[in-house]
What does this fold into?
Amino acid sequence: MTAASQVGMAVLVLYLVAVLYIGWRAYRVGSENFADQAVANRGLGIFVLTLTYAATYHSAYAFTGIVGFAQGDGIPFWINGLWLVPPTVLFWEFGKRLWVLGKRYNYVSLAQYLGDAYDNRTVAMLTALVQTVFIVPYVTVQLIGTGYIFNTVTGGAIPFEVGAAIMLVVMIIYVWAGGMRAVAWTDTVQGIMMFLAVVGGSFFVTTQLGGSITGVFQQAAAQVPEAFSLPGRAGAFTPVRWISQWVPLCLGVILAPQLVLRMFSARSLNVLKWASVGGAVYITAIYTFTPAVGMAGILYGGDYAPDQFFVAMLWEHLPVLLAGLALAGGFAAAMSTADSQIHAVSTTVAGDIYAPLVRRKPSDRELTRVMHIVHVLLGAAAYYWVLTQPPALINIVTIAVGGTAMLAPALVGALYSRRVSGPVAALSIVVGLAALVVTQFLWRNPLGLGILPGMWGLILSTLVVVLGALIVKAQPSERLIEQHGHLRSIFGA
Amino acid sequence: MNSIKRENRLVWVFFLVTVLMVNPPILYWLNGWFQARPLLMGWPTLWLYLTFWYVVMLGGFVYFAARLPSWQAELIEEAVKKDE
It folds into this structure.
């Protein structure tokens, strides 16, 4: 290992020790109470909730995928903003209602709320399954990202599989020990690191390669002018594609279990509100110089794969200590999402799948044990896919966020209407998922309309809810009537 | 119309307008301008246009959070306590 790799490795090791220490501190103040493990006893403050929201939201994609996106499609990549700001407005809009209901009825998950509101166990189970199944490949993708960083920093001395395994083990240790509190506290530090690494690293890499930010844009505009307007460099962004890309992503990302859990975790509504605002500002501002990195990738990327360009350039062009810190930021980006996902899946399995299936009310200790088992099983499954990287992995990740978007019509039906019945809500989820899978794997681009699979699923799922509300004379459950009365007395509408 | 419904309507109209400005057909009507003038003040014109509207969305979000009576969390939490 070169001297530079040794310094980089030392920085990564220090970072891993730091997150383990934070996890231990969280363990010291926490308990095995399920609500404490799941949502930190609804006690997160503004600063922590803002950063855990933002860090959970932004994954290794902030270092790899988005640069590849900008390089491949040019400036139209910034459609990305539509799944940054609008979803966070929805985080507040849905979140304030779920937070209020969560306090009154002790909900810690979307499945608990929907199952109770519709008085329908199928809705609850479907919600839990959707939120669980689609997350596993996402964890795999984060592990692959960190394995690559380890490999880059060590000049190949640590194989990518070993790097991914180290990251996974560290994450499972602190998630196991401290639950949501450990996840949120480590996310707070990781969020700060990520922001500095992406913004600072983007600025530095671009100016090193092209002299200045505007210099890179000028060179790129001269060489690849098609990258600066629609339909983009690859000609992909037709009007239909534009809409059918962002709408399901906007809804799907906010209904991912790791973000829904944070709606229930706020200490107060004031915290939830300002964390939403702060989160929206963070997740948008972090990409300030990303278009420049994308253009630099087009001009100077050479043989680098587009989504590896930024990481490689950070390592090659920053002074070694700063490069190590920046790549630790990349680690932080991947870990802060993967730890939240592992935690969220374990909470969902324990609270929404295991608990309803056993015929007695399980104790908090039992639920926490189930969470621990899931941590290990999920980690093992995700790591198996790291090693095998099945061809279907990318397709599954592509539809993962679309999958959780299929829950949106059922959620809106419960929060804002009393005309949707439980069977209709359940059917909407099934139909939406079926449409998503069919149009992704079996019948690509039906009717040649250019509508993406996620949008097909959302259209059909919404149609089921709307037609169901009009045709089926639903008797709203007593709980739903009570909840609507409660929400109306609080929100006035 | 009660004031809360009026405020909610204002919020949703605001966000609807900002979202429409960064979507077809408006975005594609302006594409000729992005093609004719790829850079503005050294930055991509398309990026500046989209960022402008995202900042407007963010600014609206901050304003509503700070000033809209129906979004004042203290009042909502008082109503929660009363309802319990």
Observations:
- Chain B has a mean pLDDT of 92.
